[in-house]
Amino acid sequence: MKNIALIGMMGSGKTTLAEMLAEKMKLDYCCADEYLEEKYNRSIPDIFEKDGEDGFRKLESEAIRDLAKRRNIIIATGGGVILREENIDTLRENGFIIIFLNRSIESILKDITTENRPLIKEDKNRLLKIYSEREHLYKEYSDIIINNHDCLDETLDKLYNSVA
Ligand code: S3P
After folding, report:
1. How far apart are the C-alpha atoms of 78 and 70, rounded to whole Å?
2. Disulfide-capable partner of 96 in 13, 28, 91, 150 (CB 3.0 to 4.6 Å)?
3. Is 10 in the pocket of ligand 1 (CB under 6 A)?
4. CA angle (8, 138, 102) in 5-degree steps
């Protein structure tokens, strides 16, 4: 059995690399944000607007509980999954290896898209503050830290070697 969850900031490459790693390892892949949007048939901006961030976090935890039941899967989590310790507990109880994909905020700011990301829609420089508040959680909750220096193939190899 191999269950892996990628954690890290918005724009760190979790979705792209989780999909690539899953293909390389012949595992299933799921993006928690996409799963959540399909499950509730609502977009993330809509949930933030109508239910606030708290409402979103509740739905996110439900989505993680659903996804953690799966086996042989790589989950790309949303950047805020570490804000609720119960999410990490759920992943661990189900045997997930948690990998922190760490990309520099300077690189993220160069190419991140903001329209579907309510927390930075008004000002993407908010990422700096968000990262400073979360960095210790990403580090504390991860089993492995992989630096993404913007070369996808290199990062994929590092990810693969860390779990193969
Ligand atoms: C969030 C990250 C987003 C999404 C939501 C909140 C966050 O996911 O879950 O906008 O709090 O960092 P990505 O990390 O996939 O962008």
Report:
1. 17
2. 91
3. yes
4. 45
Establish whether residue 30 lines the binding site of ligand 1, counting it when its CB lies within 6 angstroms of any ligand atom: no
What ipTM goes with this model? 0.99
**Encoded tokens for 143:** 């089993």
55 is in an annotated binding site: no
- Looking at residue 42, its pLDDT comes to 97
Where do the domains of the chain lie? 3-163
- Name the helix (H) or strand (E) containing 15: helix 14-25
Q: Domain 3-163 adopts which CATH fold? A: Rossmann fold (3.40.50)
Give pTM, 2 decimals: 0.98
Q: Which two tokens stand for residue 55?
A: 């409402």
Instruction: Note the pLDDT of residue 164.
Output: 87
**E-assigned strands of the chain?**
3-7, 28-31, 73-76, 96-102, 144-147
Q: What is the mean pLDDT of each run of 10 residues along the chain (164 residues)?
A: 97 98 98 98 98 98 98 98 98 98 97 95 96 98 96 97 95
